[in-house]
Amino acid sequence: MENILVAGANGTTGKKIVNLLKKSQYFNPIAMVRKEEQIPFFEAKNVETVLADLKDNVDGAFNKSIDKVVFAAGSGGKDVVNVDQEGAKKLVDASIKNNVKKFVMLSSLGADKPEEANQLQDYLKAKHNADEYLKSKDLNYSIVRPGSLTNEPAANKIELKQHLDKHGEISRNDVAQTLVSVLNDDTANRETFEIIKGETLIGEALHKLSS
């Protein structure tokens, strides 16, 4: 069992990631939360938690032995520089210091060229900077860039390309499943790719990317 630190565990997508990890036979989720009152939710599900704030020192998140990290945190547009950008960088640095084997970054479609976006430019710029920082480090990673998130049921099917030439939607459930799938050692190593809803099974789409 590998210990997976989930940053942003208390978010809508984060909770889905934690649930999938909890059901897995390979991974043990450790929910990173920033408020004490968020802990009982996870304790009730028998999920370990660590208290750490991305705006502050994140070293405490690694008090337990962490094998891999999923960054699914976000400020909801309220503080994109300190959370979405600098918070991600801090967690990358701490992951390197603690010999983490893989860092999975939840990014966004459009983060490759934020200057071309009609809206959310500040957010996409922050995501771009965080992604580029991760790519520049000696740390194995997968950067996943989904389209607009919906609360639709899981379809377990996606369209995946390194560069999609269109925008589109995808359910949080399918994003969470993709993020958990790329935690596998042989999947999407040092890869950046974009996903929207599609017709290819998630596992198959990732296999094509990795082969």
TrEMBL record:
The record ties this protein, via Pfam families, to: NAD_binding_10
Please report the stretch or stretches of sequence annotated as the NAD(P)-binding domain. 8-186
* Annotated InterPro entries: NAD(P)-bd_dom (IPR016040), NAD(P)-bd_dom_sf (IPR036291)
Q: Where are the bilayer-spanning segments?
A: none
Top-rank taxon: Bacteria
Q: Which CDD domains match?
A: SDR_a5
Name recorded for this polypeptide: NAD-dependent dehydratase
